[in-house]
Amino acid sequence: MKDNNLIHVKFEYEDAVKSKRDILLSERGLLRAAKTAKSYHSLRMKEIKIKIKLYREIRELIMNINKAQRILPRVKVPEILKKEKNVEEKIDDLETEIKKERERQYNDDIESQLQEIQDRLNALG
Length: 125
Hints:
This protein is 84% helix and 0% strand. With 125 residues, the chain is mainly alpha-helical.
């Protein structure tokens, strides 16, 4: 009964070569993906180890700072220095605003470039 249901398919030579090429390209892509996944896993493990080490060092540093704060006497800041601190804070605020403006200009430049590329693609299509 099964012998009666057999279907034979004939491929042309070019179709067979194209199919084989597609299969090989798919295998290559899968192997690259597997390699990338393996590399990602090892890098992720390194990252976790570094984060743990950093966490321990920060915790130790915080303990040392707290210990130093308990041992050292408190310093009273004169009014003149407090006023200078306010000036420094204003300067820091201005610097922050300048950085934000530069970032906005950079982002706007990227957006305009993206829009230009999109316009070119629309013109081609």
